[in-house]
Design goal:
By secondary structure, the chain is α/β, with parallel strands linked by helices. 42% of the residues lie in helices and 17% in strands. The radius of gyration is 17 Å and the shape is globular.
Amino acid sequence: MDIVIITGGSRGIGAAAALECASRGMGVILTYNNNPQSAETVVNDIEAIGSKAVALKLDVADSASFPAFRDALAVSLDQVFGRTDFDFLVNNAGYGLYNPIATVTEEEFDGLFKVHLRGPFFLTQALLPLIKDGGHIVNIASATSRVATAGVAPYASFKGGLEVLTRYMAKEFGDRHIRANSIAPGAVRTELGGGLNDEFEALLAGQTALGRVGEPEEVGSVVASLLSSENRWINAQNIEVAGGYIV
């Protein structure tokens, strides 16, 4: 059984990806930060379809906690899956902040940086010894790095940095045959940034070729598909999953 680690897997795209991966026979270890109840709900849903899942607490902004998380992960791998390694890492955890450049504070800037760029960098570094040769890393980026949307400059900048980091991961981990790709969702119906009100959703739908916003499951299925062996020759790419956003 392949095993996937999904950060921020208690809700939204992370939860959808966890369920999609489980439905394809993968074991899932998902992380949560502040909502253990939602995480346990996802674990129960995965177990209900006959797969195995574990939820572990992780604050991606706190890189000092990564060694302890790695130790807890090693215990779960051994006790639940009988493994000392895992196959796939999905760096998904994140949050949104809508604020124009003129009013963004350093605290807001640093918070987004820690979660969306520094966190994935050093978490991947910490977990690299546990990733099986021939594994795969998927980083969840954003279509906002391609299309400038007022109010999301720090978020989009760090997601753009994550795209660049993905290519370097593919280059530097290639000797272990570990692939790295990023997925860039467009507007998706999640709680990110407080969710979508009717006016904002209508605006985003009008800017999308398919005339609507996406659902978490439509991104989650791409994550699961990208991890599969049928896509083993896709590497160092950024794949936009946005229904044709501003084309």
